[in-house]
Amino acid sequence: MKNLSLLLRLDRYELLGINRRMHDPARRLSGKWLLALIVLAAIAAVGVAAPSVAVLSVVTVFYEQFRRNIYIARAMVGVRAAVVPIILSAAAGLRSIAIQEKVQYGIVLGGFLICLFLPINNILVVLLGAAAGLMLRGVRG
Hints:
By secondary structure, this protein is mostly helical. It is 82% helix and 0% strand.
């Protein structure tokens, strides 16, 4: 009975282990709270990645059967064709944000030509575009 009366007298801060006098956020996130945040972040990361990993695992196991299936092969023709307008509409939406000066059209054209004619990794193209942007801003302030 004594423990029950003690629980009734505790407020929500004391039940959660938060001391009201601790105003420093670093002290609040110490110990078990920091560990709990790390564990919850790991659970959230797994929750975000798990559906993609599950789908890829199923496709990998049955890949040969998917590849030979005539209906899936025909459907993929339509899927590939449908992806092109999605990419083009995303590019059109980015145009107003990404291209604000006329010289940036040159960077876009250069990146497009590099992707089209040279066997260069796309990450390198992005890095080259970043370097071009830095050079542009360095010259113009």
